[in-house]
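U., I forgot to send this yesterday:
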Amino acid sequence: MSLTTTGDLVTRAATTGSAVASFNVITLEHVEAVIAGAESMSAPVVLQVSENAVKFRGGQLLPLARAAVTAAEQAAVPVALHLDHVRSDTLLHQAADAGFSSVMYDAARLPYAQNLAATRAAVARAHAQGLWIEAELGQIGGKNGRPPLDAHAPGARTDPEEARAFVADSGVDALAVAIGSSHAMTTRTAALDHDLLARLSAALDVPLVLHGSSGVPDDELTAAVAGGITKVNIGTALNIALTGAVREFLAERPEAVDPRDYLTLARDAMTQTVARMLKTLGAPTA
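Result:
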């Protein structure tokens, strides 16, 4: 059990027709909750640290990464570490030494040719360090405060033929596809384009990744996994659980000052969310 690689977990999920859940973590409580939820379901899991989370921690990758590695090594289920939405070359260079087995390089905001060139260079650097690398084509939206794109806006969806060429020319190990989800959704109302997913799955021979999954209803997630999604990214759902638990506790006890009291409830709420999401995804058992 314990620390493993993202590539191994995704490969295993693909062979069983399931998806590995990848949860974005910001605090140690996030890390503990994700592992506890995975252990309760006897399921492998990926801990994701985004570039934005690193910025929140004063630009320092190692404190949270070291904590996550230690927690993963002690886990009763396989746990991998993934560096998410990386734009900084400096951060990309730090990934392997910090304990990450994979990165998501984010150049999707750029025009196609520039995205391809930047991603190809990132793939060369990542593979030289033994890292599994994911990229994005199309714009999932909702990142860094930007609103999601309209469903019919140019570039809002991943084109299967363009994706085939992008994967072949860049050498990425997995591709995040834009099929109707959006980052940072606080309501579960996203409707996925399953016909497009079917065409993408037929066109590509690399694992497909769904970002912005917190806003996708259970039945849509189940259908996405059945349609070829192999890695599912979840972040906001944990933050909703954490914030809700803290808000409720402090509303009832405005005199409280010990963070252990409300962070315990917050961690428990996140653990329950992780377990529910893993059940929905039909994650493979460890």
